[in-house]
Amino acid sequence: MDREDRRRFFVIGSVFLEVVTPVFRRQLEKNYSKAAFSCLHDFINNQPVVHTLFHLNHRYTWYCCVDSTNCIARQKLPLNNYQWNLLYTENPGPGKHHCHCKYTAKPVQLDDLDITLMALILVNCFTLRPAEEQAVRSLRQYKNDYLSHNTNGGITEPKYNSLWPDLTYHILQLDPSRQSDLDEMKNRPLDEQLCKQYYIHLSDLNKRFEEFEVYLKETNTSVQGMRTDVNGISTALQGIGGNIHGIDRSVQAVNNRLQCIDGSVQLVNTTVQGMGGSVQGITTTLQEMNSSIQTAVQEIPLINDALQKLLCYAEKREPRENIDIHRQERKSYILGQDIFYQHHQFTIESSFFYFYNKAVITDDGHIAYTRFGINTVEIHNTDGARFGRIHLHGQPFDITVVKNSTVAVTLPYSIDILDINNKQKVKSIQLSTECRGITTINNKLVVGCPGRLLIIDPQTEKVEKSIDTYGCYPMRLCGSGDGIFYGNGLNHYLYHYNHSNNKISHIELKARVSCMTILKDGSVYVLCKDGPVHVSSDGKEYKKVTIKGLTSLIWTSGISYNPVQKKLAIFNEDAISVFNEY
Same domain, yes or no, for 101 and 148? Predict the structure, then answer.
């Protein structure tokens, strides 16, 4: 495989993640909205939809206790256990175990669905136009053929030349406005780091491990020897590194552990084969896993993910959702890379001086914003639908998310803590000095005051630390685990306070700083007068952001990223733009 083969893989992967994925999401939104459902959760929780998807994952067609006339016996089950468990949870209580009426939709969002799952829902739960259905089916198949089962991360020129015309044709059947995006991507140069991330994201290895864990649990009684071997894996890993975090210390250490797992999995495979025909399905699964692990030797993030999951099962460690959160927190971005794409924009009433306008996305998915000269916090859903309003006793200057649906707003001499869901004020923290910017760090509030930063415990309302900013009045700020970024809105400097040494450094940008937000790897998006820049977590280097739909928002007033929702909100003069993370 040469560099050009890998570049072609990168181009096709970029098309699927940056074009096909948002196109499928909009198709889903359009279709379930047309069917009078307000959100994805309500749609997939509808009994006919549950029944349809149930039979894409279960063979128990004769067990349905309701709507048995619409049961469909399928030779193939395209909806795998990983996808089914992502969408639904089984309820206790009366009713047959294998009936779809026993299942309720989880609070899943569009961002949680991959291309394959969205395609299954589109073609099985809606009546699409023939051209649309063919496009969805074809794009799903292309993704599987060229990306999901691609073991070397490359695409040859003949395959690429054959794929590209069909790929573009079907995308334009769903969204004709994407022609310019496709033209741009076709000549995209290879970005090795981003290509590796795309390869990991597009691979089906994670789902294979999920299926592997399900098989182990379902056959726990009859395949006791398998448990012994998995425990052997755990023991070997403990002897090498002690715990999961030791995996990242060196590439050589990871490869050594992989060889240990590979040998153990082969031992499990041999044990299962000796049990006879009754566990042939498990044998096949283990053989596939063995092959997948060998393929993953050169992909360190994949190995890391695999080891975490095996340890989670073998040692009953923290649940999968916590592992996913930790992995997300470790994710590191390349400065200036495309992280977001514009999902939605809605207009609002403009205010006279919009430098202090700010919008945030709460952990539960609402958008709360303040406007200069208007003593309220306005609340919308991310689709722009109005949710409510909270009145304030003073002029708001800044707003930040505290936790879940709670936000904090700075007034001239106080901080109001507000519950967005209940549309009410929880408490007001009085200050002896004027305040402007606000953020959170380690469950504490950080407030910008004349010449200093105050760190305040929101529970006790006590000031725990005062940091001298040497005359700078922090108007906008954002906090991370390592420090606090801030700016005064009057010059080109972005300041960084470092907790470890209590020192303040700064970097000079090319234009005046307006607002900033922290990303989950600790790096910062900063809005400047001439557009946004991406600053490293240590505050020492930066690159311009080239995200389409974001670079056009010049001299915007507020920006805020929410790691739970994986969304970015930007407040312009009279509109709020919502960006989704790839």
Answer: yes
Cβ burial of 198 (10 Å; 0-12, 13-18, 19+) is buried
Neighbour-count burial for 215-231, b at 16+ CB within 10 Å, e otherwise = bbeebeeebeebeebbe
- Dump pLDDT digits (tens) for 217-245: 444 444 454 444 445 544 544 544 444 44
Matching residue, tokens 């290879």:
190
Q: What is the 3-state secondary structure (H, E, C) of 124-160?
A: HHCCCCHHHHHHHHHHHHHHHHHHHCCCCCCCCHHHH
Residue 460, C-beta contacts closer than 8 angstroms, at least 6 positions apart = none
Query: Same domain for 61 and 162?
Result: yes
Q: Token match 């003949």: residue?
A: 158
Q: What is the CA radius of gyration of the chain?
A: 26
Given the structure tokens 């379930």, which residue do they identify? 32
Please indicate, yes or no, whether residues 31 and 98 belong to a single structural domain of this protein: yes
In which domain, by residue range, is 321 found? 205-330
pTM exceeds 0.70 for this model: no
> Pairing relation of β-strands 558-562 and 567-571?
antiparallel
pLDDT for the residue numbered 166: 93
Residues 533, 543: Cα–Cα separation, whole Å = 6
Q: Give the model confidence (pLDDT) of 86-136 as tens digits.
A: 898 877 655 555 676 778 888 888 888 989 999 999 999 999 999 999 999
- β-pair partners for 415: 410, 429
**Cα–Cα dist 157/374, whole Å:** 59
Whether residues 216 and 356 share a domain: the answer is no
Residue 510 CA to residue 504 CA, distance in Å, equals 20
In a domain, 335, yes or no: no
Q: How many CB atoms lie within 10 A of CB 107?
A: 11
By three-state DSSP, how is residue 387 classified?
strand
The pLDDT tens digits for 252-282 are 444 444 454 444 444 444 433 444 443 454 4
Classify 465 in phi/psi space as left (phi over 0), alpha (psi -120 to 50) or beta: beta
Same domain, 320 and 420: no
Report yes or no on 85 lying in a domain: yes
Instruction: Please give the Cα distance from 533 to 479 (Å, whole number).
Output: 17
